[in-house]
Amino acid sequence: MIVKQLSVFLENKSGRLARVTEILGENNINIRALSIADTTDFGILRLIVNKPNEAYKLLKEEQFMVSLTDVIAVEVPDKPGGLAGVLKILEPYNINIEYLYAFVEKSSNNALVVFRVEELEKAIKILTDNGVKVLAGNEVYSL
């Protein structure tokens, strides 16, 4: 139920983001979800792709600073308060969410959200024990 996420360190200059997406596109790697956080000097691009290990290797070969991080992808009811309900499940267990972002696509009538948490296996167990669907990597990569 763990999903591999690419984190790419990008200098905040013209063409760097375009180059990453170009490399992925040229190698038939599809972006499933992404987030970018930036400052005036640099940004961190977080990506879920259909072939994470291959993408990692390609970006390394092109001299990008890239890492693979374990995250979870969770189905969240696509209605007001849906995300709050899932977060409330984790709250009593002191699971810290470092960051989260949404997917481009939905799963059935639910939204998909990527969570980076400190205690991954514990969070997965708590969520699944409470009826929240946590998707496996192969499910996410093939959406």
Low-confidence stretches: none
The dominant shape is globular
Radius of gyration: 16 Å
Largest sheet: 7 strands, antiparallel
Give me the secondary-structure category. Answer: alpha+beta
Q: Tell me the CATH topology of the largest domain.
A: VC0802-like
Percentage of residues in strands: 35-45%
Question: Could you give me the name of the CATH homologous superfamily of the largest domain?
Answer: VC0802-like
Estimate the mean pLDDT confidence: 91
InterPro entries: ACT-like_dom_sf (IPR045865), ACT_dom (IPR002912), ACT_dom_pair (IPR045739)
Pfam families: ACT_8
Domain ACT: 5-79
Protein name: ACT domain-containing protein
Report on this model:
With about 140 residues, this protein is of the alpha+beta class. The chain has two domains: about 5-70, VC0802-like (2-Layer Sandwich); about 70-140, VC0802-like. The protein contains five helices and seven strands, in the order βαββαβαββαβα. β5 (about 95-100) and β6 form a beta hairpin. The two termini are about 15 Å apart.
Keywords:
globular; VC0802-like; seven-stranded antiparallel β-sheet; alpha+beta; 31% helix
